Amino acid sequence: MTNPYRIEGPALISFSGGRTSGYMLWHILDAHDGKLPDDVHVCFANTGKEREETLRFVHECATRWGVRVRWIEFVDYAKKAPVADRFEEVGFNSASRSGEPFAAVIRRKGYLPNSVTRFCTTHMKIETLKHFMLSLGYKTWTNVVGLRADEMHRVARGHARNASGKDRWKTVMPLADAGVTNRDVRAFWARQEFDLGLLPFEGNCDACFLKARPKLWEVERTRPGTLDWWSQQEAEITGKTNKASGARFVTEYSYAELIQDVRRQPDMFAGGLFDDDPDMDAECGLWCAGEAA
Ligand code: SF4
Predict the structure, then answer these.
(1) Which of 88, 91, 116, 153 is the most buried (most CB within 10 A)?
(2) 208 lines ligand 1 (CB under 6 A)
(3) Ligand 1 center to residue 31 CA distance, Å?
(4) Do 165 and 91 share a structural domain?
(5) Is residue 92 part of a domain?
(6) Is the domain of 28 the same as that of 168?
(7) Which residues contact 1 (CB under 8 A, 6 or more apart)?
């Protein structure tokens, strides 16, 4: 049986900054005796709304394991702009930390993303990673994503997407091929000298609209002010394009309301923090292209 962690270039390894893709990266490096081929690139697409712990984790994986991780951020998606100008390469110190790439996408679109139209993932991750590879001169490549064996519905969608031939890349899922589950990932990180240091619901963008309401309350309760940026995006877009109804990331409530809820009841117990959120159990950006559009 071939080793699923042996990757043939040209390839893009999508590192989301979560434990699962970190696990995958370690095993890919191990399968290549610690050194990746020159045409296999590891990328982290920063949204500017990642938790500092995530940024530190990405940086630590790279430095401890001796692998180059390219940090890239969305700039624009205008077709007339050269692909190299549609993203910016940054590093741990220079990475955006105040939502700049995310705000740029929202401004460019003129409306907010939501659970159905998740253009934040599409533009800040899938398309930005594509532009990165195009800028290096690749026309086609292998896209390596960290979908596990216990995420079979997503894996199946990945295979279906490959079969459709709609993308210029072919997606491979070494963790799914190797039968790796969340339990294996957790056991691996329990043995390491460092870790992400976040609870599962704290990963991805700090107050992502896909997080359930109790989790967003908990985010604001434990880190007051986190929801301000999100509320500000709603207010700004409301003023510009949607005066009548008010723009929201989530139809049922605004971020301003969530902030008020927590102010009124600062000691509320959110509950349900460890429930599975079907949309949040995957690291953002590992969804297959098309699903997030
Ligand atoms: S984590 Fe949520 S808000 Fe951030 S890019 Fe992904 S879907 Fe969008």
Answers:
(1) 88
(2) yes
(3) 31
(4) yes
(5) yes
(6) yes
(7) none
